[in-house]
Amino acid sequence: MMNDRLRALLIRHEGIRLMPYEDSVGKLTIGIGRCLDDNGISMAEAEFMLANDVDWAVAEVRNVFSSEWPTWNEVRQNAMVDFMFNLGPVRFGQFKKMISAIRAYDWPRAAWEMRHSIWASQVGQRAEDLASMIESGEDD
């Protein structure tokens, strides 16, 4: 049913907001009038956003570890992408000793740095899962 005129009309009336905001009646809204409080998002939309976010996280990790990335197995790549996904590039960059250990292929030291961080106390089992994947190169 969507046609170009309807799309333009809705954009003109709703506007486009790429960050969540409260609409005129206090409902959490995003995009072109999507009321998150009432409608949320669909599974397809969640999967679409996840795919975009994973692409972003992979690019960020590859930026940090450009020469090392191709030598890692899939388990270690997945662990680092999950870590970046969770932290974002600024907080990820604060793990200087872990990054240094990974560049030296010192996987036990990298895992130790992950396990003994404030982040680990904040995320619990996630930290142990990722540290184990980094250390062993295997998932459970």
Number of strands: 3
| Mean pLDDT figure | 96
The CATH architecture of the largest domain can be named as Orthogonal Bundle
Number of domains: 2
Helix content: 55-70%
Beta strand %: 5-15%
CATH third-tier fold name of the largest domain: Lysozyme
**Helix count, DSSP H or I runs of 4 or more residues:** 8
**Straight-line distance between termini:** 47 Å
Query: Reading side by side through the largest sheet, how are the strands ordered?
Result: 1-2-3
Main CATH class of the largest domain: Mainly Alpha
Shape designation: elongated
Order of helices and strands: HEEEHHHHHHH
Folded structure, characterized:
By secondary structure, this protein is mostly helical. The protein has 2 domains: about 35 residues, no CATH class; about 90 residues, Lysozyme, CATH 1.10.530. The protein contains 8 helices and 3 strands; from the N terminus they run H-E-E-E-H-H-H-H-H-H-H. The protein has a 3-stranded antiparallel β-sheet. Helix 3 crosses helix 4 and helix 4 crosses helix 8. The longest helix has 22 residues. The termini are far apart. The model has no long low-confidence stretch (mean pLDDT about 95).
Short structural description:
The chain is 66% helix and 9% strand. It contains eight helices and three strands.
